[in-house]
C-alpha cells in the first residue's frame, strides 16, 4: 500500500495537470456515479490527506479516491494512449485540453459534497504531511491503547496519517524496539521521538521517488530493514528477519531491537 509520501507525490502530479483547468472529459466508471457529469467544471485543487486523495471540483464537489494496494493514477498528454494497464482496469478519467488523468484499479472512488469530506477522512489522525500536523496529538493517540503492539498502532491512520508498512518497520528499527512491543512499554521519550522522526522522514522523501531512511549511499542500502530479510543489518551485521504481523509483514533486527518477536492473540486490523 502506498505510504503518505507516495500519495503526496500523486496528488501533486494530479494538481499540476488538472488544477485551474476546466474538465472537457470526465468519466467515473463505478455504477453509483456512472451518470455524474463533471464536464464544464474546473478542478480547484487536488489535496492529499494521509493516504487519501481529494480532488475538489467547481460547484462544491470532491472526488475522493484511495489507492490501497493496487490503485494508481497516471497522467498523460491529452490524446496520448494511456499505458497504465488494460482498459477495463480504468475506474476514472479526468481530462482537459492539455492533460488527462486515468485512475486504475481504484478500490475506493466516490463523489461527495466538499462540505461533507469529513465522511471520508474525518476519522484520520494528524497528517504527517498536512497543515494540521500536531505531534502532541499524534503521541496522545498512539498511547491511548497501551497494550497495542507498536506496529499496529503506527499503521492505524486514526493515530497519525501517512505511515505504511515500510515506515512502520523503519521507525521501529530507528527506535530500537520490535514492532510487537506494546506502546505502553516504550521508554517515556520514545513516542515523541517516533512522531518527530516519522514527520522528518516523510518530509524528506515526499519530493523523491526513491525513498530513503538511511544516511549511507552504498547500493541497496536505502532502507535499514524493510525488504532486507536474511541480509546483514547495516548497524550490527546480524541477519534481518521478517514475520507476519496481522495482515502485513514486519522486518526487524533481533540484535538491534528489543522486545518480543511475535504478538500474542488476534491483532486488530489497521484502519485506513
TrEMBL record:
Query: What's the name of its gene?
Result: nei
So what EC number does this one have?
4.2.99.18
Protein name, per record? DNA-(apurinic or apyrimidinic site) lyase
Q: Name one GO molecular function term.
A: zinc ion binding
Is DNA damage there in the keyword field? Answer: yes
Q: Where is the FPG-type domain?
A: 224-258
Domain Formamidopyrimidine-DNA glycosylase catalytic: start-end pairs? 2-103
EC category name: lyase
User: Which source organism?
Assistant: Streptomyces filamentosus (Streptomyces roseosporus)
Describe the family membership recorded for this protein in Swiss-Prot or TrEMBL: Belongs to the FPG family.
Is Metal-binding set as a keyword in this record?
Answer: yes
Gene Ontology biological process: base-excision repair
Q: Please give the cofactor(s) recorded in the UniProt entry for this protein.
A: Zn(2+)
Q: Which UniProt keywords apply?
A: DNA damage, DNA repair, DNA-binding, Endonuclease, Glycosidase, Hydrolase, Lyase, Metal-binding, Multifunctional enzyme, Nuclease, Zinc, Zinc-finger
What is catalyzed by this enzyme? 2'-deoxyribonucleotide-(2'-deoxyribose 5'-phosphate)-2'-deoxyribonucleotide-DNA = a 3'-end 2'-deoxyribonucleotide-(2,3-dehydro-2,3-deoxyribose 5'-phosphate)-DNA + a 5'-end 5'-phospho-2'-deoxyribonucleoside-DNA + H(+)
Q: Which Gene3D superfamilies match?
A: 1.10.8.50, MutM-like, N-terminal (3.20.190.10)
